[in-house]
Design brief:
Elements (H helix, E strand, L loop, with lengths): L10 E2 L13 H10 L4 E4 L8 H11 L2 E12 L2 E8 L6 H26 L6 H5 L10 H10 L6 H6 L17 H10 L3 E4 L11 H10 L3 E5 L5 H14 L2 E4 L19 H10 L9
Parallel strand pairs: 1-2, 2-3, 5-6, 6-7
Antiparallel strand pairs: 3-4, 4-5
Helix pairs in contact: 1-2, 7-8
The protein binds adenosine monophosphate, fe (iii) ion (FE) (2 copies) and zinc ion.
The site of one fe (iii) ion has 4 residues, from loops.
């Protein structure tokens, strides 16, 4: 039997880099995690695994364990749902086809939002490209950074509360799979699917949708997250107990893009071990 418990806590399983909407390269993200006292960290960029190699190299030299991950975009009705996927096979054809499709839809969508915004503000597509690293998964945060660079808003937070709000005049939605399909694809790639920030302001997902996600292999909930609200957390903890689910806690660090700091929420060693035991797609990178 391979020793599956060679990692040490504390563990933060949700961090973003320049490969999506974080503001730092993967090595710097892992260095920030290390500086905050973490011994195990995951990289979970939106809809891409392209940052894994750099993160794994960095954690190796920092003496940390690296858990490769991804935050897969999904959509229920018009509401965005994020599914964290851990230890998935990055070469799985089904999941790759889906992330390719989501990422190209994201480019189209960012272009359409930029055209709408350009009607009222001085901004063009090149300003957004200038804020996006080569090959990164583009999103509203990059449009926000372009709006900041042009002096239209102070920071990402202000951009999201005004110009980029889903209720505003400039919002365009992106293509993303149904949450049940998202879970199926993660499981098909040998990964462990966990709903990210499941008790945020939008409220819990409907019970019958969660039932279908469990039937597809949903493993648990990200219970520790600054956007979760207490009432929802109570309900999800009850469900987690009843179903013996995996529960995690993580920062959702985005570098300078959000106030979230590495290690502000962590995941227990027992839960990290359960994720490792359940995954068949990729092994963790041990120090
Ligand atoms: P998108 O997927 O392109 O619609 O953009 C959503 C992303 O924007 C999420 O992954 C968050 O990381 C980020 N985001 C959402 N709200 C804010 C905010 N108020 N400030 C900074 N980033 C945000
Ligand atoms: Fe993000
Ligand atoms: Fe998210
Ligand atoms: Zn995230």
């Amino acid at each position: 039997m391979p020793d599956k418990r060679r990692f040490e806590g504390p563990s933060d399983l949700h961090l973003h880099s320049l490969h999506s909407d974080g503001t730092e390269p993967p090595a710097q993200v892992m260095a920030a995690a290390h500086a905050h006292g973490l011994r195990t960290a995951a990289l979970t960029d939106h809809d891409t695994t392209s940052g894994w190699a750099e993160a794994a190299e960095a954690t190796a030299s920092l003496g940390m364990t690296f858990i490769p991950g991804m935050e897969l975009s999904a959509k229920y009705q018009s509401r965005s749902v994020h599914v964290l996927a851990y230890l998935l096979d990055p070469d799985d054809a089904g999941l790759r086809a889906m992330t390719d499709r989501i990422r190209s839809s994201r480019v189209e969508r960012a272009r359409r939002m930029s055209d709408l915004i350009a009607r009222d503000f001085d901004l063009d597509w090149d300003d957004i490209v200038a804020q996006t690293s080569d090959g990164a998964t583009v999103g509203r945060p990059h449009i926000a950074d372009a709006l900041v660079a042009k002096g239209h808003v102070r920071d990402r937070t202000e951009a999201f509360s005004q110009i980029l709000s889903p209720h505003g005049d400039y919002y365009v939605s992106l293509y993303a799979p149904d949450p049940v399909l998202a879970v199926q694809l993660v499981v098909g790639a040998g990964g462990v699917p966990i709903i990210a920030h499941p008790a945020g302001r939008a409220g819990l997902l409907p019970t019958r949708l969660m039932e279908r996600m469990f039937a597809a292999g949903l493993a648990g909930f990200e219970i520790g997250h600054r956007e979760n609200l207490e009432a929802g957390v109570r309900t999800l903890l009850r469900i987690s107990k009843e179903r013996d689910l995996i529960v995690t806690g993580s920062s959702d660090y985005h570098g300078l893009g959000k106030p979230n700091q590495p290690g502000e929420y962590t995941t227990s060693d027992d839960m990290v071990a359960r994720i490792i035991d359940r995954a068949t797609g990729t092994a963790p990178f041990y120090p």
